[in-house]
Amino acid sequence: MDLIIVMGESRALLPHHCEPGELEQILPKNAFVFTMPWYSRTAGRYYHNRLLDFEEDLRLQAAAFALVTESSSGLRPALIFPDAGHDDAVQRRLMEMLVKIASLIDQPLTLHPYMISTSAHTDIDRAFGNENLERLLQAGLTIEAPIFLSSETIAPAVMEKVLGNKWINDNIPLFMSAMFENGLLVERSRACDLLSKCCEMARKNDLQLASKNAENVIAMLVRKQLEHVVGLR
Amino acid sequence: MLDVLIPHFNDAEALDLSLRSVAAQTWRGKVRVIVVDDGSPSDELRRAEAIISSCDLDIELIKQPENRGRPATRNTLLSASDARFIAWLDAGDTWYEKKLETQFNTLYKQVYDGQDLSRIWVTCNYDWQWVGGRRRKVTQTTSGDQLKHLYVGDRLRAYLWTLLGTREAFNLVSGFDERLPRLQDLDYFISFVRGGGRLISAESSDALCCYFKSDVGRNAQEIRDCYETIFSKHGPSLNRFGVKFVRRAKAKADFVAARFAKNNRTPLVSLGFRMHAFGMDPRYTLYRAKKSLRNG
Amino acid sequence: MRQTKLCFVIDRLALRSGGAERVLIETANALHDAGYSIEIVTHEQRGKPPFYPLRPGILRANLRPANEQRGRIRRMIDRLRMKWHRSEWLPYGLRRLKWLSMHGGFKSRLGRHIDATQPDAVIAFLPPSVTALGLARFTHRPRLFASLHNVPSQDFDNPQRWDPNPVDRSFRRAALDRYDAIGILLPEFQDWFPEHLRARLLVVPNAVQPVRSDLVRQAIRDNTVISVGRLAEVKQHRLLIEAWAYLKDDFPDWTCKIYGIGPMQEELSELICKLGLTGHVSLMGDTREIEKVYLSASILAHPAKFEGFGLVITEALAHGVPVVGFEDCSGFNFIVKDGTSGLFVNGEGDRARNLSKVLARLMCDPRRQENLRAGGLREVERFAPERILALWKLAIHGPTEHAAAKFQGED
Lengths: 233, 296, 411
Description:
The complex is a heterotrimer.
Chain A: E1 2-8, H1 10-13, H2 20-24, E2 31-33, H3 59-70, E3 76-80, H4 88-104, E4 110-116, H5 123-127, H6 130-138, E5 142-143, E6 147-149, H7 156-181, H8 188-204, H9 214-229
Parallel strand pairs in A: 1-3, 1-4, 2-3, 4-5, 4-6
Chain B: E1 2-8, H1 12-23, E2 31-38, H2 42-54, E3 58-64, H3 70-80, E4 85-88, E5 94-95, H4 99-112, E6 120-123, E7 125-130, E8 135-138, H5 146-152, E9 164-166, H6 167-170, H7 184-194, E10 198-201, E11 207-213, H8 220-233, H9 235-239, H10 243-263, H11 267-280, H12 282-294
Chain C: E1 5-9, H1 19-33, E2 37-42, E3 59-62, H2 72-86, H3 95-117, E4 121-125, H4 126-135, E5 143-147, H5 152-156, H6 166-175, E6 181-184, H7 195-198, E7 201-203, H8 213-218, E8 224-228, H9 237-247, E9 255-259, H10 265-274, E10 281-285, H11 290-296, E11 299-302, H12 311-318, E12 323-326, H13 332-335, E13 342-345, H14 351-363, H15 366-379, H16 385-407
Parallel strand pairs in C: 1-2, 1-4, 2-3, 4-5, 5-6, 6-7, 8-9, 8-11, 9-10, 11-12, 12-13
Helix pairs in contact in C: 3-4, 4-6, 9-14
Domain Glycosyltransferase subfamily 4-like N-terminal (chain C): 18-210
InterPro entries (chain C): Glyco_trans_1 (IPR001296), Glyco_trans_4-like_N (IPR028098)
Pfam families (chain C): Glyco_transf_4, Glycos_transf_1
């Protein structure tokens, strides 16, 4: 089985508004994002991290079974572990999980690592560093050369979304604290929704939100929310 | 990986309809369709072959030189399959595009819950479309005593084309009883549940397939005889529900036969079945009579 | 797809832990795994599951209607009938009626069930179901196989066994005529059968489940002689206790442990006290960890008078335990080869003394124990499940059909 492992900046990959279909656009044609509706109603590509806690129940057994079944026509399932690019603990667990998957399936496992980043690509070497690599090779896995996808190689429309996600994720704390200062409590997921709407609006107007001076946009957004709450709009 | 088993007899157009619905599935895994032609006349067989060769799916056609009936054809299909998973479809009925995807996710959930897949069939809700009538959703209820529900046939119906499961699960018990020209799937379902198998509902309340229903041209007495064979074959498991239940199940079988007779324009035969039902379970017969008067 | 439909018939199975019940379930499981479709038919009051685990996919059908499904008057009549069945009141003119009252229901329901299910072969286990199937009326023509699990004279001649009604005894014998084949456990049982039935006899020994070879190899054996079996007269545990009285002084570091429960428990316990063997010979009762017992024992003493087969003997050999028993004990002398997998004791004269002598010879010779252990493991391969399964296929298909099935690759 060929398995794609997507790593990258969590800021670029994590927020909830980049659909699996959009991500699939930057992966090879025969790749698909492996979703797990059987695990929970909301589980999809953003929750592959949960597979790392595989000792808790039979999630990995079910995932391995589903991976083999879904990829039987030759397609390559993709699993996304945003933090595996920079977090040592996550990397270690990822390697353990891959070894376990290899032991659960009755066919050879080939890994295709992908790194999606908006900046330099040093992390991928860390994620599949010598020690980890050896462990995987010992377990009989084949590892293809890692592929680095940066802002230059990714289609502009998708990259725009990836950058938008990064902007949202960077500014969630700022937005939450600004709302709080104005007497409004907002949960992280709701904050994410509101910022993503803002992002969407910018995109529709052919604008891009810059990472600098974001506080001005945030301040305006907070004011709009306040007006909405007090019934002015 | 998945074999879709389709029996075909003398209706290439219906086969085409079913194959299109298989081709439109959103499920990504490897699919092979096995069609067993049950001795169709040569011109209709040629038409079916043309449809198969123009279809993008991986299809294997097995030709039975003579017409052996539905149960024997289904047994041929079951023997021909060597895939890990099996789903059934009858030529003329259709799946909606999410059927396999939803049912496979239900199977994965079973693995996650630690269930043994060799004892599980995944069924689903379906639309029931009378020829010339309106489409109505029918819900398959898998909670409660499945054997009891199968005998009654109201909450859980034995329709093979709703199912997905592993090949081991479909071989848990013996295949289709060739003595049963009709209702061989009911017999198969009952044996499966008696053998420790369990039906699971797909995790979607939507209908996932459509059954085009017609009673025309079907022999009502043949249907009633098949019920009788099933009742005596599984007698010990039926009798444990009590005399009243057995009488109710038999009266219901009479009403099914009566419906077939009525739809085939033999009202006297239909009346005969209703009389028999009255002898079996007068209270139920009166309830049905009241209900049909109310519905006009 | 499962092609061949088999119907196993046994009158009672619920919660029963006997040898025949175990063989039935192990055989049904093995045949199910081999691709047969199986239904087990019983005729019993309790609706409880079998003691031994049954594979999913094997159907069970209890033909006897549940009491609660019957009307009040019917239940009252049933209670009176039960009382009569349990009593020994058997006037000459009512023998046939009593037989019908006791067994008629099973016979007629079984006939109807066979016609309704139309199996390819019906296999009756133990005399009550052999009789019912042999006398049942059905128009379907399956192959009929009777599987007997005891010494035939015990099953067919002993008035104390099964139904003491002489009508039942005569029916039991007559029913055999209808069978296409009759399975017996040991070749020597052939002699009991009348000439016209001998051609239909087939020796189908019990299968022995293999034990992991590393477990047997690594087992640490104590200086223990064990005996396993019901504490009943036929098992002759008394002889072993008496023999130990001769051994206890010469072998103070050896102990004798007797596993099993039964009617003679108290009597044997008294005998142990009387002979001053407390601490040397122990009655251990029932155990659920018999495997551990076999793996830690050095010798199995099997002083039984006769055996229908002797499942204990094959189990001991499979666990690497040599067996000592009497040369005239059926079952023992079929399974064990003298000097290869165990030692034979002379049945003439003082049997206890003879047993003690042979045991002493083996207890003081660890090398011999080791040789017999290796020999036993080789011998027991005769009863490997796949070999016994092949015999069952022969029983089911008959010699001609079996060969044809093999040729077509059904096997």
